[in-house]
Design a protein that fits this description.
Order of helices and strands: HHEEHHHEHHEHHHHHHHHEHEE
Number of helices: 16
Largest sheet: 4 strands, mixed
Distance between the termini: 23 Å
Shape: rod-shaped
Strand order of the largest sheet: 1-2-3-4
Number of strands: 7
């Protein structure tokens, strides 16, 4: 028995489930990471600004919310985002910046009028406030021209908003009213001939939003003023987990069925490609070996085996997709809370066993294999799977800093060792059944009929029982005759020893 080959074949056949489960685990892990970072940042803001009331803290928490829910949404979409908060206090600086360079100003005030008013603040208005404050302190201040040159060198007019070109982020429950207020004021300013002011307000209206968006489908989650205040309170009380769950920041709420299908499809394609390489690699090596030996490559053989590899690839796609989908569903909570911590490798192994059971069950139904052969296949699969997963997990634990590869190598060694141990165990088990006649609840077939060929070898004639009709007869009278004895010689008789042992898959009989 070539245990090395068995180990390679097992890993090559079931690599798709391992890859599918691990990739699904990485997918959900990326989402969890962003959620954990958001929680950490919200608590950090509460500690840094412990002197602020919830009314003021909510504005900072809103920035954290939009930054990290956009990153979470990107992870849910199978992408990545490095949206961040510059935390700059410079005049007109952005509160949030996305990967594509798009900047956002976030204003969470008590009313729509206040929020949109802050977003529409012009350079001139800010200058007047700063100048007035300086004069109250008895200090001189820059002229408007000096102020523009120092802080807004690229501006076209002092009537532009200090957040010009930035997205204007406000509470979602204030958005509709804020737009209505802007539209009315724009109409009023245009009718008064104040074109610069109207144009500034129009730019604010065009940029007004309640989410941030990177243009790739990754948006933040809308947040009302009341929800922002709830975050502020929870970050101080230490109850963020409960509040975030209410706000839908859980894997089960974030990951939708179409997300699971998309990731399963991606995992299936990747697993199929990987399995294709695993199956074709020995063929390529063998082909080049033939080239060295004979100076040529058997192209037809390579084509034939390549087609077989593609068949395995199709199976790998299915296994990879199923294991990925099941892993995501389990860790997202769709299969119950108890399954959220299920190990992805164990899920993958379970998928392999279920798929093997279905595949061989169909063969039993079609009469291609016997019940004993089905049982043997399942027992071998379970034995090898347990050994493969066990050593795979042990190897991954030892080399935790290296992803996937240690598990694959451990799985390879484990499957080879599992095949060897299974054969030894099977021999001991069947030896006991031979001696004891034990059927193990019907798993082992005990056949006590002697094979016809063996009977002929012994010298016994066989016949098939047929039904016959006996004819009626009439007895006749007769006279006895004298007869003479004749001598004879004994014939030599050969001895054939009949043994009992394995005559088929989980089938014990005479041979």
């Amino acid at each position: 028995m070539d245990y090395f080959k068995n180990g390679f074949d097992y890993v090559a056949s079931n690599l798709s489930t391992i890859f599918g489960s691990v990739s699904a685990h990485q997918y959900t892990g990326a989402i969890k990471k962003e959620i954990d970072q958001m929680i950490f940042k919200l608590y950090e803001e509460a500690d840094r600004r412990a002197n602020l009331s919830n009314e003021f803290l909510k504005g900072f928490d809103a920035e954290v919310w939009h930054t990290y829910t956009q990153r979470i949404n990107a992870a849910v979409n199978g992408q990545s985002s490095s949206a961040y908060m510059p935390e700059s206090t410079a005049v007109g600086s952005a509160d949030i910046v996305l990967d594509n360079g798009q900047a956002y100003s976030s204003k969470y005030y008590g009313t729509a009028s206040q929020s949109v008013g802050q977003q529409a603040t012009t350079i001139r208005a800010r200058y007047e406030i700063l100048k007035k404050n300086a004069e109250k302190r008895g200090e001189s201040f820059l002229s408007l021209e000096e102020y523009l040159e120092k802080y807004f060198p690229n501006t076209k007019s002092a009537n532009e908003s200090i957040y010009y070109t930035q997205g204007r982020l406000i509470p979602s429950d204030q958005l509709a009213q804020a737009k209505s207020l802007l539209q009315k004021r724009i109409a009023k300013e245009r009718s008064s001939g104040r074109t610069d002011v109207a144009n500034n307000l129009q730019e604010v209206l065009n940029s007004l939003t309640d989410t941030i968006d990177d243009g790739k489908g990754n948006t933040s989650i809308r947040l009302t003023k009341q929800q922002a205040e709830l975050l502020a309170k929870a970050s101080k009380d230490g109850t963020l987990d409960e509040v975030l769950e209410k706000l839908g920041i859980t894997l089960k709420d974030l990951i939708k069925p179409h997300d699971m299908l998309r990731e399963a499809f991606k995992a299936g394609l990747s697993a199929a490609a990987l399995s294709f390489v695993m199956n074709v690699a020995p063929i390529i090596i063998n082909a080049f070996s033939q080239m060295v030996q004979r100076g040529e490559i058997d192209v037809e053989q390579l084509k034939k085996q390549g087609f077989d590899a593609l068949t395995q690839t199709a199976k790998s796609f299915l296994l990879g997709a199923i294991s990925s989908g099941v892993t995501i569903a389990a860790q997202a909570g769709y299969l119950g809370n108890i399954m959220t911590s299920a190990d992805p490798t164990l899920i993958g192994a379970t998928v392999v066993l279920v798929f093997t059971a279905i595949e061989n069950g169909i063969k039993v139904a079609n009469g291609k294999i016997s019940k004993q052969e089905y049982a043997q296949t399942m027992m071998r699969s379970m034995f090898i799977s347990a050994s493969s997963v066990g050593l795979g997990m042990a190897a991954q634990a030892i080399f935790a800093e290296v992803p996937v590869i240690p598990y694959l190598l451990g799985s390879f060694v484990g499957s080879a060792l599992g095949g060897f141990l299974y054969n030894v165990t099977e021999k001991v088990f069947l030896s006991y059944c031979i001696e004891s006649g034990f059927t193990f609840f019907g798993l082992v077939k005990q056949d006590y009929q002697i094979d016809e060929k063996l009977l002929k070898d012994i010298g016994l004639s066989t016949f098939k029982e047929e039904s016959i009709d006996l004819p009626l007869f009439v007895s006749e009278s007769f006279e006895s005759e004298n007869f003479n004895y004749q001598g004879f010689q004994y014939e030599h008789v050969g001895v054939t020893i009949v043994r009992r042992g394995i005559v088929g898959v989980f089938n014990i009989g005479y041979y």
